[in-house]
Design a protein that fits this description.
Structural class: alpha/beta
Strand content: 15-25%
Helix content: 25-40%
Largest sheet: 8 strands, parallel, barrel
Oligomer: single chain
Bound molecules: 3-methyl-2-oxobutanoic acid, zinc ion
Number of strands: 18
Shape: globular
Number of helices: 18
Radius of gyration: 24 Å
Length: 512
């Protein structure tokens, strides 16, 4: 007999809390569509009460996604819970996820509340949420570092109030697999009404054990929901990675004996979409989705794999979507093939006019680059000419001159609120000169904390994808730009980061 493991994806909420990973509403919807194609059971779409932007994102996703349960996080108070319920109104299946910290450290230093006050607030919040929706998840934040007797008291009470899922976060990534697994087991054994709920694990990766801890929570503790993010995105060292936990349970079904609803063939596409959208590049040796995950360099390994794949491979690359991501389109591809690929990538453009604009950009790119990969298509649909998102700064054109022994000079034309400006600057290199030319006009004063260039696909013909991370007045944002010319890609990334710095609204932190 096997039972089902529920996959709860929190890329759009906990993942987005990663500094610089903030996403626009449209980007979130696009990722949510991919998560739906992946057949994720629950999508945590955001934290509705944290900002108007988050409210609108949760609402948009709740109104658009039909096959997954849509969840909003909320602190344990009536205002947050009502906002979450309001944002979720259009969902086919809605869940409110409410939380309050229960560890001595968090209660005393952060909340400045007594354990009895926390107990009452937890109970009353779950009761309030259950009057609004039938599916209520409760998380004792920093649960793993909480006093077990107190935790049992709180969890028993919230289950009695009607919580349907109990999630036990290892908020700071302090757990060790065996200990975390036993912790969940103890809670389930000691709480008299524990059989009324689904038990869930939520592990952070500070010691690199988020996946191992989650799996121990499932195997030893009997949890039947795992909270995770695509590429392990998340605050600090991130969250439990969806692709790793899913492939572990699938590959080692002999050990876990659990069913999954996930359609794993879409894993790679969503991993790439999240990486491109946030600018968080996936390391080449990352399990399942890294560029080298199925590459065999040594002669002995290559020979073995050619003779029998399973000599060195425990999973099939195509099962996670690798073969579906071969070269797709080129210069001679027509509009229909392009449109079909967009659909396969989960990209829904608003109108035929938008498809035409995207197709025109595609043709332009195909003139400069013979093979167009999925990543190229995803990059171009984010382009302003396709999204119609009017941003303060827009790229127009760039020219630069660099010669051995001479200081490079760049001239950039860009728009500021629709008006073209031209600036010229010298720099240490062409990229430096271009960004200095932008900064001459913009005077943002932002500090660049990261600049990285990544080849979208593996050759010199590839588009360069540049990520620029800027920091200003405590805000951190990532801008991503792509172009076959990396100087142009850098300028686009810089302008995109400036736009985000301007637009990012203040929001309440989930663990603040
Ligand atoms: O890590 C954590 O404790 C959380 C909660 C808000 C569930 O993300
Ligand atoms: Zn978390």
């Amino acid at each position: 007999m096997s039972d089902k493991l529920i996959i709860f994806d929190t890329t759009l909420r906990d993942g987005e809390q990663s500094p610089g990973a903030s996403m626009t509403k449209d980007e979130k919807l696009r990722i949510a569509r991919q998560l739906e194609r992946l057949k994720v059971d629950v999508i945590e779409a955001g934290f509705a009460a944290s900002s108007n932007g988050d409210f609108e994102s949760v609402q948009l996703i709740a109104n658009s996604i039909k096959d997954s349960t849509i969840c909003s996080l909320s602190r344990a108070n009536d205002r947050d819970i009502s906002r979450a319920a309001e944002a979720l109104k259009g969902a086919n299946s809605a869940r409110i996820h409410t939380f309050i910290a229960t560890s001595p450290l968090h209660m005393e230093k952060k909340l400045r509340m007594t354990p009895d006050q926390v107990f009452e607030q937890a109970k009353q919040s779950v009761r309030f949420a259950r009057n609004l929706v039938s599916d209520v998840e409760f998380s004792p934040e920093d649960g793993y570092r909480s006093d077990v007797d107190f935790l049992c008291r709180v969890l028993e009470a919230v289950i009695a109030e009607g919580a349907t899922t109990i999630n036990v976060p290892d908020t700071v990534g302090y757990a060790i697999p065996e200990l975390y697994g036993n912790f969940i087991k103890t809670l389930r054994e000691r709480i008299p009404n524990s059989d009324k709920v689904i038990w869930s694990v939520h592990c952070h990766n500070d010691l690199g054990m988020a996946v191992a801890n989650s799996l121990a929570g499932v195997k030893i503790g009997g949890a039947r929901q795992v909270e995770c993010t695509i590429n392990g995105l998340g605050e600090r060292a991130g969250n439990c990675s969806l692709e790793e936990v899913v492939m572990a349970v699938k590959t080692r079904r002999d050990y876990f004996n659990l069913d999954l609803g996930i359609d794993t063939q879409h894993i790679l596409a969503v991993s790439r979409m999240v990486s491109q959208t946030t600018g968080f590049v996936v390391q080449p040796n990352k399990a399942v989705v890294g560029a080298n995950a199925f590459a065999h360099a040594s002669g002995i390994h290559q020979d073995g794999v050619l003779k029998a794949r399973d000599t060195y491979e425990i999973m099939r690359a195509q099962d996670v979507g690798w073969s579906a991501n071969k070269i797709v389109l080129g210069k001679l591809s027509g509009r229909n093939a392009f449109k079909k690929r967009l659909q396969e990538l989960g990209v829904q453009l608003e109108s035929e006019g938008d498809v035409n604009a995207a197709f025109a950009r595609f043709k332009e790119l195909a003139d400069r680059k013979s093979d167009i990969f999925d990543e190229d298509i995803l990059a171009l649909v984010g382009d302003e000419s396709v999204t119609h998102i009017t941003e303060q700064y827009g790229y127009v054109s760039l020219s630069q001159r660099s010669e051995t022994g001479e200081r490079p000079v760049a001239t950039i034309v860009f728009t500021v609120d629709g008006k073209e400006v031209t600036e010229t600057s010298e720099g240490n290199g062409p990229v430096d000169a271009s960004l200095k030319a932008i900064e001459m006009h913009v005077k943002s004063g932002a500090e660049m904390v990261l600049y990285s260039v990544n080849a979208i696909s593996g050759s010199t013909e590839s588009q360069g994808e540049v990520t620029v991370r800027l920091q200003n007045s405590g805000r951190v944002v990532n801008g991503v730009g792509s172009d076959p010319d990396i100087v142009v890609a850098s300028a686009k990334a810089y302008l995109s980061a400036l736009n985000k710095l301007l637009s990012k609204s203040d929001r309440v932190a989930a663990q603040g």
